[in-house]
Amino acid sequence: MKSMWLVTPGKFELREIPRYAVGPDEVLIQIAYVGICPWDVRVYAGKKSVPLPRVMGHEATGRIVAVGERVKDLAVGQRAAADFIVKCGYCDNCRTGRANRCSHPAFPNGAYEEYAVLPQRNVYPIRKPATSYRAAAFMEPLACVVRGQKMLAIRPDETALIVGAGPIGLLHMQVARLYSARVIVADLIPERLDLARALGADLVHNSAEGDLKAAVLAETDGKGADAAVVAVGVSPLVVQTAECLAAGGRLNIFAGIYPVDPLNIDPNLIHYRELVLTGSADSTPQDMHEALRLIESGRVRVEPLISHVVPLARLDEGFELVLNRQGFKIMAEVGGDAV
User: Fold this and answer.
1) Which long-range contacts (CB under 8 A, 24 or more apart) does 91-98 make?
2) Which of 178, 318, 320, 333 sits between 20 and 30 A of 8, alpha carbons compared?
3) Helical segments of 52-118, H only
4) 83: Cβ contacts below 8 Å, ≥ 6 apart
């Protein structure tokens, strides 16, 4: 089978390797599409160090082509989405609702290859025929968003501020609206703000054209936002967003920041305004299940976020698009709709 390896930062190599054998509790999936995640791009750009060479890619869908002898409720021919982080299931975090922070995770080869083998618990069947492979490939990033939104505990009629209108920010916007929040989206790129408006943002703000805090206060009668998400990995934006919060406001630092850049924030802002600053990373199996249901129900629209699809052999082109902040969601086509 064909397998795309990142051998050094900035360099992919297409290799032919044997197709994986399937263990008794495992499932073999023929990969259709894979979303390109900013985490992978940071590794590609040399901003995050991981052992190389390796096959990356973890936002994947495909069709089940083989199952192990102990696999139940999954069958050859089913379409599915996959989770490429294998949680141990027995550490304290796994057993107390924080499987996303599993102490002993395993990382099988990723999805930038024609086939992938995973434990059955990491495979989520696509139940509705109308759900496309491309749409279901958003399960993993949407699951991370679902977790982050749960931590904000948004209540009906609150105002939520989303800073960053890339694919992740626009997923946050849609989930916040499911909680009946009024949503303000801020970004510097007009095309992203146009899409935010089309997907239901109540207000969009181009940060290049005016002060974000002033705009938020003007739209909230001087109160500020009740909840906020920073979906851009820039430390000063975290501080600017915290200054937009109302008393008791909650802020989720959702995007990882590389290289590390410590926050320079007035502690009295947090103390006197009783702010809650938190973060969220990855997701639990429950979040994955909920995210796929949101996609299949159409309550979160994901396909309008796709701007480019590149073949596996030209994966580097897709990574360069993300690295240069061009387009929206970039996907790699492996087997495509023919799978």
Assistant:
1) 97/284, 98/284
2) 333
3) 92-95
4) 58, 118, 122, 123, 124, 140, 285, 288
The DSSP code sequence of 178-228 is: HTT-EEEEEES-HHHHHHHHHTT-SEEEETTSS-HHHHHHHHTTT--EEEE
* Residue 321: φ, ψ to 5°: -60, -45
Residue written as token pair 């499932």 = 27
pTM (2 d.p.): 0.96
How do residues 13-35 score in pLDDT, each as one tens digit?
999 999 999 999 999 999 999 99
How far, in Å, CA of 45 to CA of 11, rounded? Answer: 10
Mean pLDDT value across residues 194-215 = 96
Bridge partners, 67 (sequence order): 27
End-to-end CA distance of the chain: 14
- Give per-residue pLDDT as tens, 244-293: 999 999 999 999 998 899 999 999 999 999 999 999 999 999 999 999 99
d(C-alpha 157, C-alpha 287), whole Å: 24
pLDDT for residue 87 is more than 90: yes
Cβ-based neighbours of 13, under 8 Å, separated by 6 or more? 4, 5, 7, 53
Q: Are 306 and 120 in contact (CB under 8 A)?
A: no
| Domains along the chain with CATH numbers | 2-138+302-338 (3.90.180.10), 143-279 (3.40.50.720)
The answer to whether the peptide bond before residue 259 is cis (omega within 30 degrees of 0) is: yes
What does the buried/exposed string (b/e) look like for 152-168 if buried means 16 or more CB atoms within 10 Å of the residue's CB?
Answer: bebeeebbbbbbbbbbb
**Per the omega criterion (within 30 degrees of 0), is the bond before 24 cis?**
no
pLDDT tens digits for 151-171? Answer: 999 999 999 999 999 999 999
Calculate ∠ Cα 260-186-101, nearest 5°: 45
Residue 37 to residue 330: CA distance in whole angstroms: 8
Query: Which contiguous run of DSSP H or E holds residue 176?
Result: helix 167-178
Report pLDDT for 293.
98
